[in-house]
Amino acid sequence: MINSFSLAQMPAIEFGWGCTDSRLADAILAQSQNQVMLISGGYADAHFVEPRLARVFECRKVHRVVVRGEPSPAVVDKLVAEAPQGIELVIGFGGGSVLDAAKAVAGLLPERFSVVDYLEGVGCGRKIQHTPVPFMAVPTTAGTGSETTKNAVISKLGEYKKSFRDDRLLAKQAWLDPAFLPHCPASVLYPTAMDAFTQLLESYVTLKANPITDALAWQGMCLFKGAFDLIASNDPTCQQQGYGQLMLAASLSGMTLANAGLGAVHGLAGPIGAYFEAPHGVVCARLLAPITRANIEALQIASSEQATTALNKYVQVAELLTGHRGLAGLVAYLEQMSADYVPQGLAEFGLRADNLAPVLACCRAGSMLGNPLVLSDQALKQAMMAAL
Predict the structure, then answer these.
(1) Which residues pair with 13 in a beta bridge?
(2) Burial class of residue 360, CB neighbours in 10 A (0-12, 13-18, 19+)
(3) pLDDT category, 9, cuts 50, 70, 90?
(4) CA distance 158 to 153
(5) b/e string for 362-385 if b means 16 or more Cβ within 10 A?
(6) Are 339 and 276 spatial neighbours (Cβ–Cβ below 8 Å)?
(7) What are the tens digits of pLDDT across the range 89-133?
(8) Across the strands, what pairs with 165?
């Protein structure tokens, strides 16, 4: 039998090489009359914004700010406090952290309380009472899928990394332009893409998967397969195809995580990001193979129907990626991908065998609840040790 499930609303999506060149400005003008707020990343602001939004700057009052790094409560609250009244549209133009900041600001502008009040497991449980300002997402990386999710991730280094979540935070439109991706340095492109793949795989085997999220996750993994090789070719057409596959796969990963949840990789990545200045994509890429190994080993000795289903899904992914149904081959494939594209170990960011206890102490909520089975602290620590 198919278990009961619900599916969240999706944003309107515009996809295509160069789709933001002229039509993005038209969309912004059509959805505003007077004043908009533009939140962009430093690189996007310097290279992408002006040529695409020149007419917006001419025809609208634009409150323009730049966000660098993962948004903290202090940053988000400052953006909200300094925003003028009457903002009709918030545009996030940049990577996943920029989109998270813009999404949070759009949700907070009508009420202007601190974002901490709304954070899961941290705040006072405040819920949005007024409709957020419409939010438009323009991702310039292919990673977090924030453009298709209903949560904004907020970090306070040394304390927490939590979500501000509400169905009404979903973007009104998401503009997916793969033409941004060739400008990403390899140190950004590959870890963020590995984060997207991790989200697709975790949402495929999660306890809360359903037939629709399975279809989206499978399509996303099919798009991801071979994309790096296409990008590395000398044929511009192949390169464009590879970048397009990554951009679409990342957005599909946002849809699947929003509706099916994630698993142990992201269960660990949250607290690791809270306690260490480690890039999220790198953390996920380095944990993916050891957590997949731990899950497979635990599932092989479990006896539930749920465990059998998850194990069969890993077999399907193994065949997709390697051409064989061997689970050891899947782990080896993920290990090689990490070694080739994200060679930095987590030790480079301060993680050591003797300072992982705080991560283990607060990793059991959130994404960890979707893992196909409960992994022991020992298994989780072993996975983190393998990622060092």
Answers:
(1) 174
(2) middle
(3) confident
(4) 15
(5) bbeebbbbbbbbebeeebbbbbbe
(6) no
(7) 999 999 999 999 999 999 999 999 999 999 998 989 999 999 999
(8) 151
Q: How far apart are CA 242 and CA 114, in angstroms?
A: 41
Tell me what the mean pLDDT of segment 317-329 comes to. 96
The domain ranges of the chain are 12-181, 185-387
In whole angstroms, how far apart are CA 331 and each of 110, 284, 309?
47, 14, 18
Q: How far apart are CA 264 and CA 312, in angstroms?
A: 18
Q: Which fold has domain 185-387?
A: Dehydroquinate synthase-like, alpha domain (1.20.1090)
The single-letter DSSP state of residue 69 is: S
CATH of domain 12-181: 3.40.50.1970
The Cα 31–Cα 159 span in angstroms is 38
Alpha carbon distance 126, 111 (integer Å): 11
CA distance 120 to 68: 23
All residues at 6 or more sequence positions from 323 whose CB lies less than 8 Å from its CB, including other chains: none
